[in-house]
Design goal:
Elements: E1 3-8, H1 15-27, E2 30-36, H2 47-58, E3 66-71, H3 75-82, E4 86-91, H4 94-110, E5 115-120, H5 130-138, H6 152-165
Parallel strand pairs: 1-2, 1-4, 2-3, 4-5
This protein binds adenosine-5'-diphosphate.
Length: 166
C-alpha cells in the first residue's frame, strides 16, 4: 500500500492545505496528515487543537483514506513508525523552494529510503499561508474562502480570545 505523509504546522489548516490533502488522497492509497510539534515555535493553536480542526475540515469529505495525527519528533522517525516512504509537500512559489529543497535533502540524508514528492499549489491558493490567515483575522478581515468553512468560527474565536488577553 502506498502510504504518504503530509507534514506541517497547520496553524490553522487553510484551503491550500485542504486542496493538497484532497489531491493526495485521490493519488495515493492512504494519506497521513501529521501536525509536527515545534517546541521553539508557539503557535496560535495547540497541536491537539490543530488536529481537531483538520478532522473537522475533513468531515464533509466523509470517511476517506485520510488520517490525522500529531507527532513530537523527527519526521523520518514518524515515517518509520508508519512504514511510509513518501513525504508530500506543497509548493506555492519559488520562495518555498529553497527551504523545501533543504528539508528534502536533510530527510533523505537521515533516511535514504524516504522520498519527497512535491505538489504544485493551485493558482487560487498560491498566496495563502496560515500566517497570512492569522494576520487577516487579527486585523478584522474576512477569512471566508481562506480556511475551510467548518473552522471559520473556531479561528475567529481563538483570535479574539488572544486579542483580549493582550
Ligand atoms: P504555512 O506555510 O501555511 O504555515 P505549513 O508550514 O503548515 O503551512 O505547511 C505545510 C505544507 O503545506 C508545506 O509543504 C507547505 O508548502 C504546504 N502549503 C502551505 N500552504 C499551501 C498552499 N496555499 N498551497 C499549497 N501548499 C501549501
Amino acid at each position: 500500500m502506498n502510504t504518504v505523509v503530509y507534514p506541517g504546522s497547520f496553524d490553522p489548516i487553510t484551503n491550500g492545505h485542504l486542496d493538497i490533502i484532497k489531491r493526495s488522497a485521490a493519488t495515493f492509497d492512504e494519506v497521513i496528515v501529521v501536525v509536527l510539534v515545534n517546541p521553539h515555535k508557539k503557535g496560535l493553536f495547540e497541536a491537539s487543537e490543530r488536529v481537531e480542526l483538520i478532522k473537522k475540515a475533513l468531515e464533509p469529505i466523509g470517511d476517506v483514506n485520510v488520517k490525522v495525527e500529531c507527532f513530537n519528533g523527527l519526521l523520518v522517525d514518524f515515517m518509520k513508525e508508519k512504514n511510509a516512504k513518501i513525504i508530500i509537500k506543497g509548493l506555492r512559489a519559488v520562495s518555498d523552494f529553497e527551504y523545501e529543497f533543504q528539508m528534502s535533502l536533510m530527510n533523505n540524508k537521515l533516511d535514504p529510503t524516504v522520498e519527497t514528492v512535491f505538489m504544485m499549489t493551485r493558482a487560487e491558493y498560491s498566496f495563502l499561508s496560515s500566517s497570512s490567515v492569522k494576520q487577516v483575522a487579527i486585523f478584522g478581515g474576512s477569512i471566508i474562502g481562506l480556511v475551510p468553512d467548518e473552522i471559520i468560527e473556531d479561528v475567529m474565536e481563538k483570535v479574539n480570545k488572544k486579542i483580549k488577553e493582550r
